[in-house]
Amino acid sequence: MQSVIIGTAGHVDHGKTTLIRALTGVDTDRLKEEKERKLTIDLGFAPFDLPSGRRVSVIDVPGHKKFMGNMLAGIGGIDLVLLVIDANEGVMPQTREHLEVISLLQIKKMLVVLTKIDTVEVEWLDLVEEEVREELKDTPYKDAEIVRVSAVKGIGIEKLKFKIDEIIDTLEPKDINAPLRLPVDRSFKMKGFGTVITGTLLAGKVKKDQQVDILPQGLTCRVRNIEVHNQPVNEAYAGQRVALNLAGVEKEDVPRGSVIAQPGFFKPTDRLDVEIEVLPDFPYPLKHASRVHFHIGTSDLLAKVYLLEKKELLPGEKGFAQLELADKIVAYYQDLFIIRFYSPVKTMGGGRVLNVNPGLYRKYGEEEMAELKLLAGGSSEDLVLQQILRHGIISPSELLKEAKLAEKELDELLEKLLDKEMIIELGDGYLMALTVYRDWKKRILKKLEEFHKENHLKPGISRAELKQVLPDKLTTQKYDLFLEKLLKSGEIRLDQYMVALASFEPQPIKEEEKILKEIKKIFADKGIETPGIKELAREIKIDEKKVQEYLEYLMYLGEIVQIRDGYYLSVSVLNEVQDKVVNYLKEKGEITLAEARDLLESSRKYTLPIMEYFDQINLTRRKDNVRVLI
C-alpha cells in the first residue's frame, strides 16, 4: 500500500496543531516551551488511519516566522499539504510565505482547510473562500479543494479524511529501489536503546541490522531497530516516517541536517550548480556573490550565490548559479531547495540541483553552460550524464546499477552522449564527462608545468604526488586510466613511477653540466664500489637533495642504474659485471655469493645487492645458496 506523508502549513495560531489532534488524537506540541506558549516551535509528527484503511503520517510545522527554518526542515518529502487558514483572519503573511515555499518545493497536492468555522457566519466563510481563491489563482494550486472544519467540535473532520483518501489515490508510487536516503530531522537518546533518529525516508528502503552511512560526517553504523507509526518493523520504505535506533553513535553524531544513506553512494559536497528563481513579489534582486540562507532537505546553512549568466536576477527571473556552501551537505540531481534573504531573513526564492560535483564557476565557458542547460532539461539522458559527472570516472556496471535503467536503454543513451561529445570513453569502457576530463587535464598540465619549472633536471613528478591535484576519493585504477588517456592524446609522457609533459626534456645549465661530468667520472673510476648519496654530497660539496636530482637525471639519460635504494652504478660498469657473471655461470652452471664476491674482486657489501638486482631483472634465480641463469 502506498506510503504517504501529509504536512501542514499556514500562519501562526491558525489551528494546525488542533487540526492534527482532531485527525490523530495526538498532541504534536511535544516541547515544554510549546505547551507554555501555545504555539508550535519545532516539528511534530503523528500517524492516523483513513476511511480506506490506509495509515498515513502527518507533520505539524511551526507557523511563526521566527521558526521558519524548522518549518522548512519538515516540509520536504511530503506528498500532500494541508494549507490551514483561520476562518476569522483569512490569508495572513505566513500563509503567503508557506504557500511560496510549497510552490518552490513543487509539492504536488494541496487541500485548503478553513478552520474555526464554528466561530463565524456562513456569509463570512464565503468571503474568506473568495479571498483564498484569489490568492491561489496564479499558483499551481488554483484548483485545490477547500474543506471547512471545526477541529474543536469535530465538524468536517470525516469529510477531510475522505478528501485526503481521494487525493492519495492519484499519487505516484515512491521509488523503493533507489539508493537509501533519509534526511534526519530529530535525534535523541532513548533509555535502554541509545541513539534514535527520525526522518522521512525520501528514497529506497532500510532494513534492520543494515549498515548505513551517516553523512556528511563520514560515519558508518548499524541499524539496530526500526519503527514506523510507532510499531517495530524489519524494513521501512520510501514515503514512510521512520525512527531508526542506531548502534555505536551518539545523538550528537547525527544532528538535524545529517543524512542516513546507502553506504558508499553519496558524496558530501560544499559546492552545487543549480537553477535558481527569485519569487515574483520579492522586493529585491538576487545579486552575484550574495550571501543567503540555504535550505535543502533538513539542512539549513549559509551559502554564497555566484550567478553564471548575469550580475543579478530580478524578481520573477530564473538563472544558473553556483552555490558555495558554508559546510558540506548531501544533495542529489533535481533536489529542490529554498533560499532566504540574508537579512532581514525572508524567503526570496528557490531552485533545483543540477550538478553535485562541479568545477569552479570562474572557469566556466560555453561547454559548461551548455551542459547545465542540458541538465536543466531533466530527461533520462540528463540523469545519466549527472551520474557520470558525479563520479568523475565511472564503469558501465556502476552506471547501470545507479541509473536504474534497462541495459539496452542505457546503451542507447550513452551512444547519444558520445555522439554529442558530452562524454568520452577511457580504457576498459570507463566513462567520463568531457567537461570533467578537460578540468582534470588542466589541473594535471598546470601542475606538470609548475613542477618542471621548479625542477628542470627531474625527468618527471611521481604519480602519487601528481594525483593530489585530483579528487581525494579517485581510485588508483581510475587514475591510471585517466593518465593513459592523456598519454594517448600526446599530452604527457608516462612510466611506472613518473609523469612528465610530453614536450619536456630535462636540461642542465652550464654549471650543472660540470657537476654531472664529475659524478660520471666518480662512478666510472670507482667501479662497483661507488659512494652513497651522503658520501657523494661530501665529495663534490653539494647538498644531498641536489645529488639525488643529478642521479635521477643520469638515470633518465640511461647512464647510471639504481641497484637498490641509495646504491647506483654506471651502466658501463654494470654491463661489465653482468658479462663476468653470465660467462661464469655458462661455464660453471651456478655461483655462490662468496664466488661472486671473488669474481668481482669486492666485498659482500657491494656484491650482494648486485646479485639481488640480477634476480630482480630475471637474469638469475636463487636456488638455496647458489644462483643459476634463467
Task: Pick out its properties.
single chain; about 625 residues; Rossmann fold; Elongation Factor Tu (Ef-tu), domain 3; six-stranded mixed β-sheet; six-stranded antiparallel β-barrel
Structural account:
It holds the Pfam family Beta-barrel_SelB. GO terms for molecular function: GTP binding; GTPase activity; RNA binding; translation elongation factor activity. Translation factor necessary for the incorporation of selenocysteine into proteins. It probably replaces EF-Tu for the insertion of selenocysteine directed by the UGA codon. SelB binds GTP and GDP. It comes from Anoxybacter fermentans. The structure is a single chain. The protein is an alpha+beta fold. The protein folds into 5 domains: 5-168, Rossmann fold (3-Layer(aba) Sandwich); 181-261, Elongation Factor Tu (Ef-tu), domain 3; 269-363, Translation factors (Elongation Factor Tu (Ef-tu), domain 3, Beta Barrel), CATH 2.40.30.10; 379-507, Orthogonal Bundle (Arc Repressor Mutant, subunit A); 514-630, Winged helix-like DNA-binding domain superfamily/Winged helix DNA-binding domain (Arc Repressor Mutant, subunit A), CATH 1.10.10. The protein has 19 helices and 34 strands. A 6-stranded mixed beta sheet has the order 2-3-1-4-5-6, sandwiched between helices. A 6-stranded antiparallel β-barrel has the order 7-8-14-11-10-15. A 6-stranded antiparallel β-barrel has the order 16-21-19-18-22-23, surrounded by 4 helices. Strand 5 (109-115), helix 5 (122-136) and strand 6 (145-148) form a beta-alpha-beta unit. Helix 15 crosses helix 16 (544-557). The longest helix has 21 residues, at 434-454. Residues 29-43 and 63-68 have low confidence and may be disordered.
